[in-house]
Structures are given as structure tokens and as C-alpha cells.
Amino acid sequence: xxxxxxxxxxxxxxxxxxxxxxxxxxxxxxxxxxxxxxxxxxxxxxxxxxxxxxxxxxxxxxxxxxxxxxxxxxxxxxxxxxxxxxxxxxxxxxxxxxxxxxxxxxxxxxxxxxxxxxxxxxxxxxxxxxxxxxxxxxxxxxxxxxxxxxxxxxxxxxxxxxxxxxxxxxxxxxxxxxxxxxxxxxxxxxxxxxxxxxxxxxxxxxxxxxxxxxxxxxxxxxxxxxxxxxxxxxxxxxxxxxxxxxxxxxxxxxxxxxxxxxxxxxxxxxxxxxxxxxxxxxxxxxxxxxxxxxxxxxxxxxxxxxxxxxxxxxxxxxxxxxxxxxxxxxxx
Length: 332
Description:
By secondary structure, the chain is an all-beta fold. It has one helix and 27 strands. The chain is globular, with a radius of gyration of 20 Å.
């Protein structure tokens, strides 16, 4: 059964499916484009493994969420690459976006209840599940580990305005870090909040340095790095803090990029209609990226002709940051 979407390692060696690095060659068997169609619509296969994030204290552990479209099951799960152990933390309402694992041992994620998105936190062993936010739309949590502070994107009017808010684990006081936030993919390293932001109509990748903040962040404090164009599927600092990875999922320049703080960019992989990476996270030792890979196929009619349906299947893969070798993590 398929379900509509809105259009808009010791252990590793034995348990991972390997894939060669994507070449800039659309004729290769594992990366090709679809023919032009009059209309398209997107569906998902039943089982989806999505939005991984490494444990900042252990490069062999990550958290992700699992979705069963038939049973409408959403589970927040941790996985250990060395032992193969899976730990189900929550069976909950709809999970949205990337869960984030903090150095304090807490994991934050967004859950949708009706038309309202809330941030929930849970300990890495599954204890002490609690709701962290109370009103309207709250998305994209991430940890400022130096202060045990959780930051997130908030809209008081369901999308017209977006703010960056912060609150420590042991305080009820909410800090407004920015009233000019635009939402979207975000990551943090050593107090530098990596973000894509429109400046005078032009999108830039750059960062805000929280250690320099005196009051609410302004555009003048945004350090511009690159105006690399493309729809962002995921973004992650390398552990060195000297460059970051970004996944562009649309347009002619789609692919996985490495971008230095000086703005130099290098495309490491090229995507195509059948294969792309989305949400991702770099390990604390800098050796691997764990990422949600989306493989797509065409729905066909009884005459073996495309119907316009594009069927998407998400799985979780490791990418070696030196060799770009890809390995599928078997989680079913």
C-alpha cells in the first residue's frame, strides 16, 4: 500500500549494504532521471526510516525515527553501530523533522498534535518523556551543549513570523534569540548556529555566533559564507568546525556539497531522480555522515507506462567522509 505526501564498522561490514559513490553519470544503474511527465504526484512506501542524528558523545550511536504508513506507527529509536542494538524510546503521535541528541543525554524532537507542533524531550534510555513547549508552532530543535540549552524555531501565528527561542533544561524562562528567523535546516557547533538566511532577497549560508550575542540577533551579526543556490534537504557541520556539508535536493546543481568557511564549495556527489540524500548528521570524530537516503521509483500502469506517481522510500545510510563510500544500515 502506498501513501500520499504533500507535493510541495565491525558490525557494519556484515550488516550494511554497500553502494559505490555516485558519479556524475546519469547512465549509471543506481542513479538515473525519470522521463518528462504531464503530471506527477508523490507517495511513500509502507516502511520509512528517517532523519538520523549522531550522539555527540559517541560516534557509534545515532537516533532516528521509524514510520509505518499502514499502521500509522511513529517510533523514536536509538541505534548502536557496534552492537546493532535498537532501543525504542517512544511510540508517539506524528514525528516531524530531525530529532536532536544533546551532550546531556537528552533527545529532543518535534511531534505534531492536531495542527500544533510541540517539542518533546526524552532521556537517551527512554525515561522522563516530557513536553518542552506549550503554545502554537514549534519546530527544528537543536542543542547548545555548552549551556544545556535547547533552541528551536517558533511561530506565534502559524507561519507568518518565525522566532529563534531558547530555554535551558532547568529553567522556565524562554529567551528570544532572534525575531528575524526564517526557519529551515540548522546546525550548531561551538556556539556557531549554521543557517540559510535571505539577506536582501538573496539566500546565503552562514552562521550566528552565540558567544558574541548581547541581545536579540540581527542580520548584521550573520556571518555570510556562501550563496550556493538550491533547495536545502539537510545541513551539518563537520566536527572540525572548519567546513560544513549541505544536501541540495532540487535543480540542476542538486547533490551533496562540502563548503568551507571561506565560501569554497565542492560537490561530492550528484543526485538524480532515483536517488538523493536529505536530513543528515556528521559524527563527532568526523569520519562518517549518517543520512536519510530517499530512493524513488515510478508507478506503472498495466501497460508498463508511467502513471505520474513517484514512490519514495527512505532508509538510513553511512557515508565515509574520506572515500564517499555509502553503506546502508539494515534497521528492519
